[in-house]
Amino acid sequence: MSETQRMDIPIEKAASKNLKRAYNIMHVGTNRLFKNTDITVAQFDLMETIMLSKDQALSIQDLTEKTVCLQPNITRMVAELEGAGLVMRKSGTDRRIVMVQLTPKGAEAVAAIQKPLFEFHLSQYKNLTTEELHLLNDLLEKLVQP
pTM of whole model > 0.90? Predict the structure, then answer.
């Protein structure tokens, strides 16, 4: 019997409590990894999203849809990352659409963090089987759908 079942609280409240607790643990651990870097977790997420995209270039709109940031924040982050030489903006034939891509320096910054971040995530999931991890991922995807 879990702690939340012993407390006799509704399952929705227990699930919310556990989700918040898991988020906080992940958040604190992730922030520790970024403490000695020149980029934030959100900036890394944006740059990794670009790196993992098919064309390794995304529009501001695409970045807004693929990350958890609002468009004004994406625009601000892109400007900061561009100033640091980590991304560059390119206009295509339609000058209203600006594509953002990583510079070699940006790709190096992402690569330097990916391994320790992956190892941290592995340590967080050590108590789950592969099947449970797939189930968790499926349920989280379902939870965030509009």
Answer: no
